[in-house]
Design goal:
Layout: H1 4-7, E1 19-23, E2 26-29, E3 35-37, E4 41-48, E5 55-60, E6 69-70, E7 73-75, H2 82-94, E8 98-113, E9 116-129, E10 141-147, H3 160-171
Length: 173
């Protein structure tokens, strides 16, 4: 895994090599004075149940954690709300339309992409969908399956934040 201080070598403003970390979450260019902060990216995750109370989990089709179980969702785009992102991601990944959502909880995560650490705050939502008639796998999802909450193997879940969101939801039922 490559933390930002191992990857970011040149100032994004002037291109100088005098771009160095000055704290665990910021960089400073001593050539032009540019200050850069490492911030958390927002991501969303949907917990969706079917009529029998089983939870919909997806199978990741791409790295990181290809083949691991996950919740549908993804990154919030610039100038997009978390709720808009959740609706968009669930539609893109599973062709499902969210009819109702309720915020649950958030947890921090470190998402390793192409060897680079992207720090995220993952927001979990309990959701209902209009129907499952049009469900199909797309985008970065390889498959999906419904699980009895008591039978979820948390060792197969893609990240600690998703495990915590699921455990919070299941524990509150």
């Amino acid at each position: 895994m490559a933390r930002p201080e191992k990857v970011l070598k040149y100032c994004p403003s002037c291109g100088s090599g005098l771009f160095k970390p000055d704290s665990p979450k910021s960089f400073h260019c001593s050539s032009c004075g540019f200050k850069f902060f490492i911030n958390s990216a927002a991501a969303v995750a949907a917990i969706i149940e079917n009529d029998t109370g089983e939870i919909l989990l997806t199978v990741r089709g791409v790295e990181p954690a290809v083949g691991a179980l996950d919740l549908p969702g993804g990154f919030v785009d610039p100038m997009e709300s978390g709720e808009e992102a959740l609706k968009r991601e669930v539609k893109e990944e599973l062709n499902l339309d969210i009819s109702e959502m309720h915020y649950l909880i958030s947890y921090p995560n470190e998402y390793i992409y192409n060897g680079y650490s992207v720090f995220t705050t993952d927001y979990g939502y309990a959701c209902k969908v209009k129907h499952f008639d049009s469900i199909k796998v797309a985008d970065d999802i390889a498959d999906f399956q419904f699980f009895n909450p008591k039978e979820i193997d948390f060792n197969k879940i893609s990240s600690n934040s998703i495990k915590k969101i699921l455990k919070f939801y299941i524990g509150g039922k």
